[in-house]
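ok new one. same drill as before - structure tokens go in, u give me an amino acid for every spot. 245 of them this time. try not to just spam alanines like last time pls lmao
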């Protein structure tokens, strides 16, 4: 359930709901095996947006359904306030392989209330043949891996090198080759990837400078927060204020 913004907030709310796999990025729908329904009335998969369903906003209830009964395809569909919107994605089971689909919510500037079956009364009617995740037998569920048991057992890698020497590419490659460690890459480029501007502003040089400044501020905050989290990190950042001759 999508809840209202705080009164007077200048932020434009962002909300997507859907499914992704264990190794997906937080930006729902923007990489492989990541499927989202966006509040602007769009569906997004692997960074590709298409019109779907209806736009939604304050106090709307969005249903998110995964049908595994087909012999070859997993069908992902959505509803708005009890009205079915049809199938948004058809995922080949062969391509999905052993990857489990996990509920995924992406939001900014809004509050969201979720129901996996823990509430006495659902927000809306449940279509025939579907059950809440809470009702799926435990032996049929997939447990995502646990984080390191303590901060002392976490791993932190610090990239060192000149700008443009390939540190970011190495960090991304190392993260992909060691997925079981679930590295969080902290760097301006990683933050910029999550900052989005409207299509009308993408060519604005001033907007690019502003985003870079905001990314640096976000990164500074993330570095402060990181020691509290039981995760593995790669710090991929160098100072450009005084580059070497």
């Amino acid at each position: 359930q999508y809840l209202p913004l705080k009164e007077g907030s200048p932020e434009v709310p962002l909300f997507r709901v859907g499914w992704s796999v264990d190794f997906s990025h937080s930006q729902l729908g923007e990489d492989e095996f990541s499927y989202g329904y966006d509040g602007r009335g769009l569906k997004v998969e692997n960074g590709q947006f298409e019109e779907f369903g209806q736009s939604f906003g304050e106090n709307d209830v969005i249903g998110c359904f995964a049908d595994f009964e087909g012999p070859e395809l997993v069908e992902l569909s959505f509803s708005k306030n009890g009205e079915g919107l049809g199938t948004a994605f058809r995922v080949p089971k062969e391509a999905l392989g052993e990857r489990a689909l996990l509920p995924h919510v992406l939001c900014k500037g809004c509050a969201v209330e979720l129901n996996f079956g823990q509430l006495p009364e659902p927000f809306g009617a449940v279509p025939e043949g579907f059950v809440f995740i809470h009702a799926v037998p435990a032996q049929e569920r997939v447990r995502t891996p646990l984080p390191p048991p303590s901060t002392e057992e976490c791993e932190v890698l610090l990239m060192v090198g000149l700008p443009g020497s390939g540190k970011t590419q190495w960090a991304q490659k190392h993260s992909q080759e060691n997925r079981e460690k679930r590295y969080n890459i902290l760097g301006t480029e990683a933050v910029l990837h999550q900052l989005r501007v409207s299509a009308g502003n993408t060519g604005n040089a001033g907007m690019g400078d502003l985003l870079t400044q905001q990314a640096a501020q976000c990164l500074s905050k993330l570095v402060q927060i990181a020691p509290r989290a039981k995760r593995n990190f790669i710090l991929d950042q160098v100072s450009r204020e005084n580059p070497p001759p």
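The two ends are 55 Å apart (CA to CA). and btw The chain is about 20% helix and 25% strand.
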